[in-house]
Amino acid sequence: MDPVDFLTAHGGVAHRRTMLAAGVSKSALTRALADGRILRAHQKVYCLGTAGGVGVTRLAVLATGGVISHDAAAALHGIEMAHRPDSHVTVGRNRARVAHPGCFVHRSDLGPSEVMRVDGLPVTAPLRTVLDCARTLEPAEVVVIADSAVRQELVSFADLRHAAHEVRGRGAGRLRRVVDCCDPGSGSVLESALRMLLIEHGLKPPRTQYEMRAASGRHLATVDFAWPDLRVIVEADGFAYHRGRKAYLRDRTLGNACTLAGWRLLRFSWEDVFQHPAYVLRSTQRVLHLAAEATRPPGR
């Protein structure tokens, strides 16, 4: 599989292990890096770059004296996302007339702790980056970014929640709503995106990272989303995490355990969530309805 095709289909940013598991060869990665078709965002994280290429952002930094910010900074930190980042820099509030073609220029006075250097470039620190994204991106996009930052231990969930409740002014309420939707236990971009799709359409799972147990009490698996009262489970079925024999056996065990215990199980892929969201919602609504009907006492 071509690295550019994979990154294009998966939001523009991905970890090396995810790409290799999906069929991208090491030699294809090496060639794509050598000819500049993809870039190394951070350590083993690769990206397509910002709109027009990372070169646009680098030039904007030089031209404006600004700091790379928003989702452009997220890409450089290696934070995963479900969309292709744009080019963003932030300059001081006194730089009212600063602009650069192809780049969004924001104005804010950044403190020393809010700026760091990545690959020699000035970039907003991870916490500030997530907060900036929350002001400009769609809630579902921000939750994917925030969950990834927490998962990679670039930001602690406690610090993120504290910062969200300290922010005042434009976008403060929006930021708090986004943080309320984050899940420190989220295991992948797909899981975050699926959770937000359900939340935004009134299907918020009452439990996440739910522990499935056998009748004996033995732990079987930890599932993504569960409605325990209705005995319904929904899983984000990422292809990269289900290629090995061990993962295959885990899926079969989980599926059988759910059936034997009277649970209903739905699994949704990346393509389902991002290309066919109506199918995901329709299926979830249907299984919840069937489960509710099955638990209703006779005659009601």
TrEMBL record:
Coiled-coil ranges per UniProt? none
Cross-referenced InterPro entries? DUF559 (IPR007569), Restrct_endonuc-II-like (IPR011335)
UniProt domain DUF559: residue ranges: 222-288
Under the heading Pfam families, the entry gives: DUF559
Domain of life assignment: Bacteria
Please give the name of this protein. Answer: Type IV toxin-antitoxin system AbiEi family antitoxin domain-containing protein
Instruction: List the source organism.
Output: Actinoallomurus vinaceus
